[in-house]
Automatic annotation (TrEMBL):
It comes from Candidatus Sungbacteria bacterium RIFCSPHIGHO2_02_FULL_51_29. PANTHER family: ADP-GLUCOSE PHOSPHORYLASE. The lineage of its organism: Bacteria, Candidatus Sungiibacteriota. It comes from the Bacteria. This is DUF4921 domain-containing protein. Coiled coil: none annotated. Pfam families: DUF4921. The active site is at residue 176.
Length: 342
C-alpha cells in the first residue's frame, strides 16, 4: 500500500519537507479562488457538527472521558464536548518507518505516522470565547492522545497545533486542533533544542528558565501569569503580538503535565487568546506546542516545553522569505503593555 505522503530531505539544509500526495490536490486546485461560502452554508456542510463514527476518544460536557462503544453511542452523541478523530485527508499515515531511500543524490522516506483532529462541539465558539473548563478538556485530550502515540516505533515527534482563521490555514471554521505524530524531529524543534543545549553547555542553566526569571522580574513584556504558568511577548518577537506560554517550573516534556497544571495552563491560554481576540478584533493565529521528542532521553533534560501563539498580523514578503529574518512593526514591550490593559 502506497504511503499517504513522502518526507524528502533538502540536500543543502538537511531539513525534511513533506510531499502530502494523500491530500489529493490537483494542479488546478492551486488557482486563486475568491468565491466564499456563506456562514450558514459552512455550518450545514461542516463535518464536525456531529459525533464522528471513527472517534477514538470522547470527553463529555461534564468532564467524563469515554472510549466509544456500541453501548454508549447515544450518551456520547447527546453529551459530547470534545472528540478525537482521524484526519480525513492525513499528511501522515500508513507507511514504512525509519527506511530511507536514495533517489540520485537525494533522500526520501515514507510519511509514516498518525494525523488526528481534536474537535470541540460548538461551531461558532473559538477557544478565545470558551470557558477555562472547556479549554481544560481540549488540553486533556491533547495529553491523552500524545501519551498514546509517543511510544509507537514509528514516532519520533508529536506535533500539537491549532489554526484559527483562514489566514492561519484553517480550511474549516469549526474550532479544531490537530495532533500529528511523525517519524522525524522537525527542523524548527531541532534548532530550538540545539540552541537550548548550547546555552546549557556554556552556562549550566536552562535558557528558558533564565528568560522566565528575567521576564517576571522586569515585567516589560509580561502579559499574564498565574501560580504555574507565565505569558509574555518574546524579546525577539518574530511578528507583532507574538506571545509564548511557559510553565514556571522546569519540565522538558508536555506529556508529563498533571491535572492541576492543565487547569492553570488552560487559564493562561484563555487569557492570552481572549486578550488577542479583544485587542486585535479576533485575528487569525496559529499556536503550537514545542516539547522534547517522543523518544525522550536524558540529554533533553535541558529543554523547557512551551506554547507559542503567532497572530497573523503581517504577511511574509520577499525579504522575510529570502533571508529568514522576520520584521515586526511594533515592539514586544508596547504589544505586551497593550495586552495587559485588556
Amino acid at each position: 500500500m502506497r504511503s499517504v505522503s513522502e518526507l524528502r530531505k533538502d540536500i543543502v539544509s538537511g531539513d525534511w519537507v513533506v510531499i502530502a500526495t494523500g491530500r489529493k490536490r490537483r494542479p488546478h486546485d492551486f488557482a486563486v479562488n475568491k468565491k466564499h461560502t456563506s456562514t450558514k452554508a459552512q455550518r450545514v456542510l461542516c463535518p464536525f457538527e456531529k459525533l464522528h463514527g471513527e472517534a477514538s476518544y470522547v470527553i463529555l460536557k461534564n468532564g467524563e472521558t469515554h472510549q466509544p462503544s456500541a453501548k454508549n453511542t447515544l450518551l456520547l452523541e447527546k453529551e459530547w464536548a470534545v472528540q478525537v478523530i482521524p484526519n480525513k485527508y492525513p499528511a501522515f499515515g500508513h507507511g514504512r518507518c525509519a527506511v530511507v531511500f536514495n533517489q540520485g543524490p537525494y533522500q526520501l522516506q515514507d510519511g509514516a505516522g498518525f494525523h488526528d483532529v481534536v474537535v470541540t462541539r460548538e461551531h461558532d465558539r473559538p477557544l478565545a470565547l470558551m470557558s477555562v473548563s472547556n479549554i481544560f478538556s481540549v488540553l486533556y485530550a491533547y495529553r491523552h492522545r500524545y501519551q498514546q502515540l509517543k511510544d509507537d516505533d514509528c514516532v519520533k515527534y508529536v506535533s500539537i497545533f491549532h489554526n484559527h482563521g483562514a489566514e492561519a490555514g484553517a480550511s474549516i471554521t469549526h474550532p479544531h486542533s490537530q495532533i500529528v505524530a511523525i517519524p522525524v524531529v522537525p527542523p524548527e524543534v531541532e534548532r530550538s533544542i540545539k540552541g537550548s543545549d548550547r546555552y546549557f553547555a556554556k552556562e549550566k542553566k536552562c535558557v528558558h528558565c533564565v528568560m522566565i526569571a528575567f521576564e517576571l522580574k522586569e515585567k516589560k513584556r509580561l502579559v499574564y501569569e498565574n501560580d504555574d504558568f507565565v505569558v509574555f511577548a518574546p524579546f525577539a518577537s518574530r511578528t507583532a503580538f507574538e506571545v509564548r506560554i511557559f510553565p514556571k517550573k522546569h519540565s522538558p516534556m508536555f506529556e508529563a503535565i498533571h491535572n492541576d497544571q492543565i487547569k492553570s495552563f488552560a487559564d493562561t491560554i484563555k487569557e492570552a487568546l481572549s486578550k488577542l481576540y479583544t485587542g486585535l478584533g479576533n485575528p487569525s493565529y496559529n499556536f503550537f506546542i514545542h516539547t522534547s521528542p517522543a523518544f525522550y532521553v536524558k540529554t533533553f533534560e535541558h529543554y523547557h516545553w512551551h506554547l507559542e501563539i503567532i497572530p497573523k498580523t503581517a504577511i511574509w514578503a520577499g525579504f522575510e522569505l529570502g533571508t529568514d529574518i522576520n520584521i515586526s512593526t511594533i515592539t514586544p514591550e508596547a504589544a505586551a503593555a497593550f495586552l495587559r490593559t485588556l
